[in-house]
Amino acid sequence: MRLVGMLDSPFVRRVAITLRLLEVPFEHEPLSVFRTFEQFSRINPVVKAPTLVCDDGTVLMDSGLIIDYLEALAGRSLWPADLASRTRALRVTGLALAACEKVMQTYYEHNLRPEAHAPWLDRVTQQLHAALGALDAEIARHPLAAQEATLTHAGLSAAIAWRFMQIKLVTPVTDAACPALAAFSARAEALPSFAATRADDTIDVSTPGYRAP
Questions:
Q1: Residue 157 and which of 17, 49, 190, 205 are 20 to 30 A apart at CA?
Q2: What is the C-alpha separation between 177 and 169, in angstroms, rounded?
Q3: What is the pLDDT of residues 149-189, one digit of tens each?
Q4: Which of helix, strand or coil describes residue 58?
């Protein structure tokens, strides 16, 4: 089984950590949708990260769909079983993935357009701050466990979103603005599955307009 994509993508990293937590063996191919576009396209013509090549050769994409497949394969899930806990986990995960999308849009707006479109950028920034603020409030109200044995998709996604924001934005949101989220992310990043899939280690510096954190 092969996971294709760079770990500076929060969606690729989400799958990589899930694979480790589920103890599913895999190989990682850190191909860039920019620098190695042609090589990536030979695996998946859509060139979408993450891409998972299953053991039977089936090519899957979209982190949520890949994770659904992996959990079916492993016979267990990182979603809580009871409805109330699952509902909270779904809300936290949705906020985290929304934050990732807004960070990505902000990054591309600054780095890929000849001139950033200010009204659009203002709206995306507002959405990003709303997502991170809501995430922080949820974690403060319902603290998340930072142990691999009990980590759910909520904690996994929240920690990834915070780190992604830190390495991609020129002016990241401060720890003081989201203290519960920042503290939880720091604890999660120290876990073996996170340390083995560090986003910082595979940042694609050939991405147009890349800015070092």
A1: 205
A2: 15
A3: 999 999 999 999 999 999 999 889 999 999 999 999 999 99
A4: coil
CATH code for the structural domain at 2-77+198-202: 3.40.30.10
Residue with tokens 């109200």: 141
- Above 90 in pLDDT, residue 210? no
What pLDDT was estimated at residue 205?
40
- Listed by start position, the domains of the chain span 2-77+198-202, 83-191
Note the pTM of the prediction, 2 decimals.
0.91
Cα separation of 11 and 6, whole Å? 9
DSSP one-letter code for 191: S
Q: DSSP code of 145?
A: P
Q: Which pLDDT does position 127 carry in this prediction?
A: 97
Q: How far apart are CA 103 and CA 115, in angstroms?
A: 18
b/e string for 152-176 if b means 16 or more Cβ within 10 A?
bbbbbbbbbbbbbbbbbbeebbeee
Residue 60, beta-bridge partner list = 52
